[in-house]
Write a structure and sequence with these properties.
Elements lengths: L1 E2 L5 E9 L5 E7 L5 E4 L2 H7 L4 E3 L5 E3 L9 E3 L2
Antiparallel strand pairs: 1-6, 2-3, 3-4, 4-7, 5-6
Length: about 80
């Protein structure tokens, strides 16, 4: 699973929805200049709770293999 907690992200921009209706975002992690595309764990807790786990540090992570959103690097 990948850390996908909104509390760890900045410059969050909605991009649209996946075929199953999951919100897709472009964002940066707080400690990075790289942009990524993916989902927000806080959205998925309500709609796909089986795809979200709580990491030992208390932040949420997402099992991307259980949803129809790809996590990937994108251009800013």
């Amino acid at each position: 699973s990948l850390l996908s907690d909104v509390r760890l992200k900045k410059n969050i921009t909605p991009l649209g929805k996946s075929p199953s209706g999951i919100n897709i975002y472009k964002f940066q992690y707080l400690d990075s200049d790289q942009f990524y595309q993916g989902a927000m764990a806080q959205d998925l807790i309500k709609t796909h709770p089986e795809s979200v786990a709580t990491a030992p540090n208390g932040f949420f992570s997402v099992f991307y293999d259980l949803i129809d959103v790809d996590f990937k690097k994108v251009d800013g």
